[in-house]
Design brief:
Layout (H helix, E strand, L loop, with lengths): L1 H9 L6 H37 L7 H19 L1 H12 L4 H37 L6 H19 L1 H21 L1 H17 L4 H8 L3 H21 L1 H15 L5 H6 L5 H17 L6 H4 L7 H10 L3 H28 L13
Helix pairs in contact: 2-3, 2-4, 2-15, 4-5, 5-6, 5-7, 7-8, 7-10, 8-10, 8-13, 10-11, 10-13, 10-15, 10-16, 13-16, 15-16
Length: 354
């Protein structure tokens, strides 16, 4: 037993929730952003440019060609999601080079049989077995990729589809429940997904694996926006414009260390999400797609996803500005001010090491 533990330690194979739900899942989000999410942004820009041009005006052929190029680029990037997840998750698991490169393939295998969840499972299994045999033989260049591929493929075919169906089944339950009880689930989803975004795990990966859509995705987006915009505005006096942009367009995860020091600072953004969630589901009936549901205002992916789900119009734009930006800022500031009166939050509590 001791020798086995020593072997696992030497190979950096750690069976823990932190390694898989924090390190690997957070890395998966990077892979999703590098393929699916950025692909959606580029594709949407191209599609909307083509819609604006319209007609067959020969003077706009150059712009039309550029728009078509963007659509093609975005489409291909989105189709390579599995490969991006593969290399990202393997990197998160600290895989050696040969395992890392082979995981590009196991990621595609997993995505083929089980979507994003299948890609994640396939890469984790393949990478861990690959790490175990890496540099243990004189024919490492053959053994390591072979073991990684075979074990990844086995996981892709045997486990991936089941995990994918389970996640999507849970997603459907959440979607149907939100449609039946939009107020209650508007609160629950906004709070849970918002907190997931701020925690060191990936709300984007979670929403994509659950395949959230409709009102549930709309509530999730609002919850994420409340965290990002909320932290950005309430911490402005501590962090200035740099911190505002880093949190508002980047991630509220930057505040994790400060939350550990003073958990009260989590309350303004979280309560803002709880208040706005049911407003989004009951009053405005906001919706989104899975790709944008867990992103909030990060790279404006949440807003692009909302436009994709609800269409482009001035009315939808105003709703987005109200629910994704204005109300999160207002409610977070009011709650923060209230807590400061009771000395639960003080200057410097939100300070980031920027």
């Amino acid at each position: 037993m001791k020798s086995f533990k020593a072997f696992l330690k030497r190979k950096d194979i750690v069976f823990s929730s932190k390694r898989y739900l924090q390190d690997a899942l957070s890395a998966m989000a990077l892979g999703l952003f590098a393929s699916l999410l950025i692909g959606l942004i580029i594709k949407t820009i191209g599609q909307q440019t083509m819609l604006l041009i319209g007609g067959e005006d020969t003077s706009l052929l150059a712009i039309k060609s550029i728009a078509e190029f963007l659509v093609e680029t975005g489409t291909i990037a989105m189709s390579l999601m599995g490969a991006a997840i593969g290399v990202a998750v393997a990197w998160g698991l600290k895989a050696p080079p040969m395992v890392l490169f082979t995981s590009v393939v196991t990621g595609m295998m997993g995505a083929t049989f089980g979507g994003p969840a299948g890609a994640f499972i396939s890469v984790v299994v393949g990478a861990e077995f690959g790490k175990a045999v890496s540099k243990e033989t004189k024919v490492d260049i053959i053994v390591t990729p072979a073991v990684t591929l075979i074990m990844g493929m086995l996981a892709a075919k045997l486990v991936g589809p089941g995990v994918d169906q389970l996640m999507k089944g849970l997603g459907q339950i959440i979607i149907k429940s939100t449609e039946l009880q939009p107020f209650m689930f508007g609160v629950i989803i906004a709070v849970i997904v918002g907190l997931t975004l701020t925690a060191p795990i990936s709300s984007a990966a979670l929403c994509i694996m659950l395949d959230l859509s409709g009102l549930a995705a709309g509530a999730a987006t609002v919850g994420c926006c409340a965290q990002m915009v909320g932290f950005a505005v309430v911490s402005y006096r501590d962090n200035g414009i740099g911190g505002f942009i880093a949190q508002g367009l980047g991630t509220s995860m930057l505040q994790v260390a400060n939350i550990v020091k003073n958990p009260w600072i989590l309350l303004p953004a979280t309560l803002a999400g709880a208040i706005i969630g049911p407003i989004a589901t009951v009053v405005f009936k906001m919706s989104n797609i899975a790709i944008g549901a867990g992103m909030g205002t990060s790279g404006l992916v949440g807003q692009i996803g909302t436009f994709t789900a609800m269409g482009f119009s001035v009315s939808i734009l105003l709703q987005i500005l109200l629910l994704h930006i204005a109300l999160p800022a207002i409610f977070a500031l009011l709650i923060d001010k209230f807590l400061r009166k009771f000395n639960k939050i003080k200057d410097g509590d939100y300070l980031l090491p920027l």
